[in-house]
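Changelog note: in this version the structure field was regenerated for every chain. One regenerated record is shown below for reference.
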Amino acid sequence: MPAMGFFDRIFGRKSRTARRWPADAGQGTDNPGLVVLLDAPPVLDAAAAGRALNSIEPCRGDPKFTSRLIDEDGPSERQVVYGTFQFDGHVVDVIGLDSPVPAAILEKTVGASHWTGAGREAMEKHSAHYVLIHQGGGPSTLERMIALYKLAAALGGAHLAGVLHEAAWSCAPAAVVREFENPEFLRACRDQVPPILFTGFLKFLADDGTWFATKGHHVFGVPDFVLLGTEADKPSDVLDLFMNVFLYVITADRELQPGHTMQIAEEIFLRFGEVPAGHIHRAALMGAGRTLLITRIRKEDIPG
């Protein structure tokens, strides 16, 4: 499957997630959004963007864009683009700014990422950006996120430098965003895509060890997870663990609570708890929504 091969190239391994993601799963509470990074000023060609969306997947009717173009500081070459895209039932607000994103947001996303090479450099050197906010429509958060990535690819075109997903403390270079122009990749996304594509995964080095944390799960109505790693833990294995728990919540439509336990694979047993109010790393570990601390336990600790 093309998408799985794509993730093999990114992460250097095979994903072990195998649960199917239901089309109506993951109803979050926030309006998801993306920041589209550009290497040139935002000049929005609505007709061209509509054709690009139709070329990815035929839309139900022609995409519609309602726009206003307002000078930022009176008569000037620097302009701000305001408008709303509507396609396939999705309603997405668009703001285009002829300036880089604030440094704090870039550090939180690109600075915290593991991307290297030309893709990262292009994101760091971007000169302008669009802000996309999904305001309604779509059967699920998954479909809303796919719509945002498709629109990011359509609007960015040849000037696309990447995207930022601030809610997930994550980013994606242009090459990843352009995968959303591939219908086979989109079919894979709707089947069993690794959640890492739409959420964040961070590693914190601290005096008491290595902490791993997810970010952005709240967009899907799922708690974020944190875990104190051991010397034997590989980040890829912790990522797999987090993704499998996420997919369990999504596919089984279950709500995890402190005190719940779970078995993952044959010999991995977990307990979920609160991050203590006085935890020294609480500010860094806590997600925007509920956050659960994962602890490995023995099989004998699972209630009968």
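Spot check on this record: Residues 218 and 289 are 5 Å apart (CA to CA). DSSP finds nine helices and 13 strands in the chain.
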